[in-house]
Design the sequence.
């Protein structure tokens, strides 16, 4: 499975942005997915996980209530809607996939996409 993230950019605090992750190579509907991020000088951190069917999600406390993950398995797409962005959300965002939802929760995933940079100015 190849994952391609897109949608990053430069926004102001309080703005919204939607990231997309396109999967190819095989149907993504049987894989759990997630978003992770890495801020400058920091380790990569978990943002959100979504189950293969989309019915189960789990968010990091830092984004809960502001970010929403969704997926369209017919299109092999995963999305991350980010609202009320804060400067501390600035990071490279990575989409990821694995056959195990719990592996995504732990950040131990088999498939990683390239990152897309989100910069939030104050």
Sequence:
């Amino acid at each position: 499975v190849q994952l391609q993230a897109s949608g990053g950019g430069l926004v102001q605090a309080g703005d919204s942005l939607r990231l997309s992750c396109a999967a190819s190579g095989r149907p993504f509907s049987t894989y759990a997915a997630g978003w992770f991020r890495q801020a400058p000088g920091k380790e990569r951190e978990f943002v959100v996980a979504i189950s293969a069917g989309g019915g189960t999600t789990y968010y990091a406390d830092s984004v809960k209530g502001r970010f929403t993950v969704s997926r369209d398995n017919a299109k092999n797409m995963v999305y991350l809607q980010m609202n009320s962005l804060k400067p501390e959300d600035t990071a490279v965002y990575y989409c990821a996939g694995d056959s195990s939802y719990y592996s995504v929760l732990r950040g131990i995933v088999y498939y990683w996409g390239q990152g897309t940079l989100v910069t939030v100015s104050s």
